[in-house]
Amino acid sequence: HAVHDQQGALQGNYSTPIKLFIVGPEHHRYLRTYCQLTKDCSSEDSREAFSAVLESMESIGFSSSEVDQIITLLAAILHIGDIEFVSSEEGGGDSATVRNPEVVETVSQLLCLESSAEVSFALTTLRTVTRGEPVDKLYSCSKAAVVRDAAAKALYSRMFQWIVSRINTHLQPRDNYSRSKLSVTEDHLNIGILDIFGFENFEANSFEQFCINLANEQLQQYFNHQIFAMEKLECAKEGVDDLDISYTDNTPVIDLFLARPIGLLCLLDEQCKGLNGSEKAFVQRSRESFNKHQCFAPHRGNALEFTISHYAGDVTYEIEGFIEKNRDSLPEPVADALRFTSLQLL
Question: What is the pTM for the complete model shown?
Fold first, then answer.
């Protein structure tokens, strides 16, 4: 709401005010779920929060041009999510074509790309090279939707990393503040924030929980090492009687995920790299490799699931969708289309 209200006022280094083509947040697919969760948030609250963000960025050191480009890129990402696909009569079957080319035109305009046709081509066409010759094949509608969302996620992720990098650059001590004035070593000029993932065990657990719970296991292992193992070692060095402390070493479950060459992630990558990779093959290979592992419990029959005994409890993972989610990368044709932008940030 705030961007919609203020978009005509964004100037930066542009010769004319930025037109973002943003309408109410409920009209953009990436925001609809959020809108349902925040029905009590008024436009006035949004405007105040948005103004506070802009003031904060300015006080940190972001230029008006950088802020304008960030907002423009965010608007483009929202519009990317609104691109829809339908089956093409020319391609036959489920071959995808863009249903709303005017949205692609908007995306191209915001991203400062000359050709919207190249964007449409990149989102709907798989290009391979056979015997030195390019071969084009239209994606299915479902695959085109995956490519579209992968492009949006890649843009958002890289922009987020760039913003963090710029904040670090703006907040670092200037050259005129010497170490002698600060009387501290460079190590003391950093603030570390540990954002601990929450362990997740839902009614249905997929690839997202698989990754989050692995991160939790690694944090728990670090905690065990720092709080228990190293302290016990320190007590032994100082001649203090060994403390009667017991804790669960979760190294076996981490090795189950990360061991090479047959950890679960390696087996999943193996299926993702092959043209005929499947979740069924991944589950079968996991059963064969870890049938006797203390932290792995295969399920009977052809069920695409297995259970892992984490330090916090047993979690059953539904494997359907693992391969596509693990493949979530930016296709080369999309990256090629974006390289012709004149938007400096992009």
Answer: 0.65
